[in-house]
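Review box. Two proteins, two foldings.
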Amino acid sequence: MVASLSLGLQPQTFVDTLVRHILQTCPELRTTFLAEMGKMIHASAVRVEFSMLTVPDEARLFLDSSIFLPARLHRISALLANPARYATAVKRLEVTDAGLPPPHSRGDEMLGLVKVDSDDDDSDSDGILQRERVALMPTPAQLLTDILAGCSNLESFVWGSTNMPPDGICEALSASCPRLSEFKLWPEPLLLTEATPPVASGPSPKSRSLAPKWEGPSLPLLAGLPLTRLHIARLSLQGSRALIHLFTQLGEESLLEEVGLDFVWLDDKLCQKLVEAGRKLRRINIGTCGTKLTDVGLVAIFEGCDSLEEFGLVEAQGRLTRKLWSKVENIPPQLHKFKIAMSEAGPHHSWTADHLVSLSTFQMQQFTHLSIIRLLPPLRVSATDHSLEYDPHIEEVANMVSISRDIVGAIRNAKGLKVLECDWWAWKPDDLKPLLEKCTQLEYMKIAFDAPFSKLLTLTAAFTPLIHLLKLSVCIPRHHSRGQIPIISASDPESTILHPLTPAASPVRHRATLQSAATDFAAQVFCADESQLDEGPDPSFPLMRDVKRFVKKCHRLVELEWYGRHARGTWLVTRSITTSKINTNVTVEYVPPVASAEARARAKLEKAVQEAALFGRSLAYNVSRQGSEWTGAKCEQLKSEREMDKESKEDAMGPERPGRGKRSGTMTSERKSSSSVSPVIPYTPISPSASIDPFLELGNQDHSPPVAPTRPLSKCPPSYPSTRNTVPGNTRTRSATMPGTDQSASGSGRSKGGNQGGNNTLRGRGGKGSSSNTTGGRKRNVNGTGGPSRPGNGNATGHASGQTNGTGSSRTGGQGPAPAGAQASRGGRQRSASTRAGL
């Protein structure tokens, strides 16, 4: 009672923080805090436990027959059983992948697995074993609607499941969650094992165009919510149109402050609509693997979003030119964070990195954070020693080259830089020194250093002016990183010993001794070859005394990191607390390269999928969701609005002018969803190089090139002879025969039979005669000798069927004498007697 009274005098935030720390330390006290500690503790425990709700996207985990449910599912069960008590406490809801259980688990019905027949067969000594694909059964749409129905205080909705959400999820959010301020559709990337079944080693990460896509027909309904953060990825063509409709409805009254977009069909029109709804935008991140985005869209964002503070271009293909950044004349006055990131593994088009050339003309004076970085591929578990390693494949576009002096000069102009990340190019020591002289406010620096690591430690004089530098990260190219690359452990850092060190010596590679409790596959870290145990010191590894000498000159440096494919680890600096300015006592601790918790978790999932494949099971994505189709009054209303908008646009365009035909390569009919390859747009999504063609083999999709629609010849517009580059007496003639058309005498040596003009037989070029050639369904006039004449200066020709006689040609109705052996045409519809005789 005394404790309860004392807590009752404290603010609610203090009580919630205290309860949160207790439950994190002792999770078994959840039931006690919820049921046996009084109203105040119960209310605090509800706010802590149900403030963020995680829903695994697996239907059978919610069945009553399921056992061994994790604690997070008990929260969902409690919420569904008593929504009035628990649902109002939910502030953030996340839908995630359920994952793949190990193959020796107890029953597929308990694990939420369904077997899908596969066409692949594996043979062994006992016979033929039918392989099975294990498909995760997505949560039904009605169950998700029931969960959202009571979450009236929901502020953030995040969809991270690989399978796409129901089409009507936005209607449920708009009806039940009036306070929603964040909508994020950002599914997890496909596993490497599932994305590349035919290839053991290849480009990674895989093309985003292969992942399932969402049509999002209910997206416009989010316009009625107070959205401030919107992140959407993997939209289909119809989904991009729905997003344009959403931006149109938001208009200038939009509250959006942060937007992230990453899908194939991102184009200039969508960027312009984003600008119209982005008067308050402060953060924008754009990515696309399609080819629709051009300079026009990006320039519109810079010139239209006056409140922009952060801009990111992450893994963007598009059709960006070499002059992109020179076209940006007006930079938002508050823009201080700028980021460009591209992966090493691709796949990329050959022009993907061309726009970086124009950064030398970009205005960077106001930037405080500048990032031009390369993204490493996801770590994977090695098949030999169960450690983590990078895919060795690097796209030609991403090959590291030296940074140009023009770009160095542009970066030097940003004297207020606090964070510089620039490892897309390699920095030589001579390039680095001028930069450090100007940018003295740096707090974090990350570069690719084109020299041995020991050379960096000799640049103490150059780094001394950086009195605010806290962390320095460098990656060293392979030709400067001799020696064996250290093993990156896939287990927790505490369970593995990689490099036993002495204070003054370089690390030596030894076999790691593991505890008996470390039974996880990823914890078995050994050298791949016994001959590597006594290799001796690493020649690229610096001496500890050199590291200490360097960090003493950088007075505030606390971390020195060697990262990347050839990483050697991190040196942590501890300085003694003293008021003396001359005290330079420092303690340096070396930490071997260790993967992050997210990378380790994903690598373990990759390994689990590989082990499941040995038992004939593998994941199957894009499984149909029960109740996914959207129906109802709101659905019909949006459809009718789209039809009305389409008709109004067609009326605004007006009727076609007579005599003007449509281009044969353009199709105006509605296109299907981009979940299948569109036959209309041949260059979107991108067509990777031949080395990654197996990644495009998805189901029964047809990747044949599109065929332009044909039209009858009567619909073609009239054609007149070209008068360009014609020289009298040496006119070039062409002959082409199409089905259903006839070919008259021609002055070309390729014509056979009937090559008579007047009384002369024509062979070769320059002869006198007449020709009526058809190219693409149109007949053209070609003169035997002499250039084209004006009306009234030669013989008459037809409007659509050309007739050339003698030495000249004229428009219809021309008057003039005709040479011997030819007849004057009437309206361009009569052939000469000599021509008919030849035919």
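Next protein.
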Amino acid sequence: MPQRIVPHTLFVILLILEALFMIAIFSAFNSPVAAVASPPRLTESARAANVAWTPPEPGYRVIIDASQPEGLYALDYDALNSAGLPVDSLDPRTFRMFWRGEEMAIQVLGEMDGRFDPGDAILFYGRNLDDLFYDGLYFNNDYTGDAVYWLSYGGLNGKRMAVVNGAPASPQAQRFPHKVHLEKNYAYLPNNPPNEEDHWYWQKIEAFGSGSASRDYTFIAHNIATDNMTGTLTVKLVSTIGKDKVHQLTLYVNGNRVYDNKGDWVGDTLFIATAQAPQSFFQEGINTITVEITNDPNSGGSVDQVYVNWVEVTYYDTFVAEHDALVSVNPEGNLQQVVIDGFSNSDITPYDVSDITNVKRIDQGVVTGTGPYAIAFDSDALRLLTITPNAWLAPARIEAVNYPSSAYAPNDLLDTSLNADYILITHRDFWSQAEQLAQHRSSEYHVALVDVQRVYDQFNGGMMSAEAIRDFLSYAYYHWAVRPTYVLLMGDGTYDMRNYSGNGAPTFIPVFLQVVGNVTGETASENRFVALESDPTYGDLLPDMYLGRFPVNTPQEAQNMVDKTIGYENATCDPMPQYVLFVADDEASSLYWDLADELADGYDDPPDNTLKYVPDPYVPVKKYLGKDCNYSPDGDAASGEECYQQIVDWINGNNTLLVSYTGHATRNYWASEKIWTENLVANDLTNTDYCKMPVTLNQGCDEGYFLDPVDSAVSEVGVRKAGSGLVGAVTSSYLGYPYGHQYVAKGFFLALFNQGIQQAGRALVEGEKYAFDRGGYTTELEGFLFLGDPALKIKTSATSPLGDANSSIARQGGSTQLSWAPVSGATQYDIYRAVDDPYFIPTGAPYATDVTSPWIDPDPNALGDPNHSYYYVIRARDEMNNYRDSVHHGAFNFSLVPGQ
């Protein structure tokens, strides 16, 4: 059965972790040590500038799926007619094909008369994405194994295959190395290995006591060479057994031992074993590779456990066609005569396919025989495909390229005049719902509504990848006329994007998978989509835009989330939501109660105590397990029914702004007593009044793990619920530590209640920055996420006195001018300024103090500086030194773009 090898009881892991670090909790967490950040995986699309392109019009995607072999693919009259091309009127000389933005050399039969007739065809060389990945020619096959090629017509004549002279004259080659890659993906191990590697595995092998266990892997070989050569066997594995375990691994080829070396592999690590295998060990027909482990009970216990990732074999083949085709390689690239036998007819053509976009046709080969037939020709090609028309292939499908239309949808994502500050990327299944939200947002923002397939088309040649989305956002950030601020992804995603497990759960918007922290392993790191620019303080971890996701799977779920977002923001509440519900677990003695109390009652600046995390007029309400409900004298509640019901009753009956939870969590519930569950949010919350729909701020582990293909996270259920539940969820996708999570909450509260930042996505990033600045925590920047619209304005009772609507930046002659409306209760206005940091935190001495509106920057370089951009925050203070900040002005607010 397909399986995901992850802890089924997360509390076991959490309690073990707790036992380890709680011994030194007061010393360790008073001086927290930052977790080591994992570098983002290097992608070809990020490296190759020419991947970003504007697809041709008209355009057609020609798809070779993961099950189809390498070969010569034919697009004939009937296939193109069925795909909707005007085959009777087009000029075949204008046919053009592309691979990832680069034009391919193709062959068009019958094009010379300028007509495309029955019997004519386009021939192109193609491979699926898995084949290209295994040969190192594509960066990632996590998302799909299908390769997308592009077809267009009209305009200039297209690129054609060069013809090279292959008249045979060189010494004849006798054999060539034939590589076979064997891999299946059944088991998902997100934390093995704990780095950026493939986490899908084929089979588990377990050996007990002093015994051995093995698995067999087979492949078929025909026409193998019989001379004295040496092949290779390579096996990639991982172990899940402790760090001191010594693994004894033995490898066999058809029963012949080729590798047996105890001690090479120690611990729960990745291991690649490579062995030489004499050619005589291989045989015609079925070949069996055996992977065997033997347990040493004196090393690491009574069991050894490993998982096989893949097996790769290289043996020597002879030049005999199979089913009228042969792919052969010449790694040295030396000129040699190639003689290939075994064809069923004499219409044989060799192709140099060393470069997928510059295929060459080899001419003047000599064909002999009367059946079977042979061909002799000279070539120095690294890779050859020799074939007859009998072996031509047909692609899986041909798709006409079209995109849903909208007044908010740009026609070309490479248009540098685009000025959107809010980007909504959606799967087209949710286009109607996305357009409704785009219209709502257009009252405050310039909106770009983008079909995610257009992103794949323009930034990865039509193939799904999270890196393509990141590359698009990076392009928009650096090249659009305005740098976008908010990004919403509308569509769910899973870690099983290729449906290896067979459950059928689709991926509408892919997950950016990244190893986060030291325990979780690979998980969703949503900020990686928008961490675009290296920062001297935060490295490459700080988001440069504010991102959220609607984890929806149906149009109805999308409609639910759109309706709640718009309804919440448009609702007039009387009274305004003023309650912040604090829920805490009873584990770890009183630690979680204390952490929650610090948030509910504490200040950020003791002993001055001017910055309260939850200031007036907001009212903390506490539901602490084992203390305020399900009371237990020793603080260890036996159950959680009372807390569960009190939480439900409070939310259903009161205008609650936020629900803050501190404690253990899993993706399905809060606390082992299950005081907050999927059933609670799905069935028991009846808070249909928008003023009673809170945002949750979860400080437990893994509660936002939305990427499971089978099991929805509790926060997902809450935000997707129709007409009630949650309007948004600040949550996480990883196993972390309570102090790091609490720091995020502190920064979130300060942003929301003290800095006047209402937008949930922006407040979350402030919380993540706070966790890094105050505690050195990097995993919070990687593993926290927002399920909801990042531009969602949380209904604070006193809205920001200096928001977008009542403060502005403008050009005044050759200077920068800031203007703002008077703020009730404010007695002083200060200006903070930063250079080249649009997200700076206004601290220290103001740039200008006690100023009035309008205020003009006296710095003559603040406007038109070719080397720097300048950013401003207006701070309003009252007599008690309480303050609220405006939005960041400058390139961030897009009313003016100084220095650009």
